[in-house]
Design brief:
Number of strands: 9
CATH class of the largest domain: Alpha Beta
Structural class: alpha/beta
Radius of gyration: 22 Å
Strand content: 15-25%
Shape: elongated
CATH superfamily of the largest domain: SPOUT methyltransferase, trefoil knot domain
Helix content: 25-40%
Order of helices and strands: EHHEEEHEHEHEHHEEH
CATH architecture of the largest domain: 3-Layer(aba) Sandwich
Strand order of the largest sheet: 2-1-6-5-7
Number of helices: 8
Distance between the termini: 30 Å
Number of domains: 2
Length: 239
Amino acid sequence: MRFDLLTLFPEMFPGYLGQSLLNLAIERQLVEVAVHNIRDWARGKHKNVDDRPYGGGPGMVLSPEPVVECVEAVQQMDSRPSRVVVLTPGGRRFDQRIAEEYSEEQRLLLLCGRYEGFDQRVFDILQPDELSIGDFILNGGEVAAMVVIDALVRLVPGVLGDEQSNKQDSFSSENRLLEFAQYTRPREYRGHQVPEVLLSGNHPEIAEWRTQNSLERTRQRRRDLLDGNEQSPQPADNS
């Protein structure tokens, strides 16, 4: 899978791309990531990419020319079909279902906004997906793009050491519940014990405990995920 990141601040990405699971996925050529500076497509001596909004108002708006021409040029850099995604507060809310949907794509172009956003003609011409990671405002789309990549990389075959891992994650298509509580050594810490059933070696009982624990955690924290139906899918067995 290939990600193309289109941004005015490419210097934000090297540290992120060089760490942890994503870096390993890139090294193993399971994932490709290319970063492009929108300003490279700006016109004029000063390479301006924004201007004051027509009609007045605060801030600056990203101009259509450098953005549209950057996207079109980047699309031509690889023969694989690309899906253009704009990170914007006005987009549909990103969740695990959308992550699974996007994981089927060969290539995503993630367009990161800044300032007061994009000139509307960017949307009219490119017809991109519009995506939001939540009901709050960030300084730009770069952090949101990192969130999207982090969620998708886990779904690329071969990236995770255990292919069952992402199926047990909270919100996955095979498990709409919150994930069950996890424990490791030591068996006791500051008076808090590991549940005995997890030490029993009885895998059917462990699976049942995890199912009930997931249901209870979901009921307490995110009852909306149950959709009025307590008979939600069971978490995958980890035996």
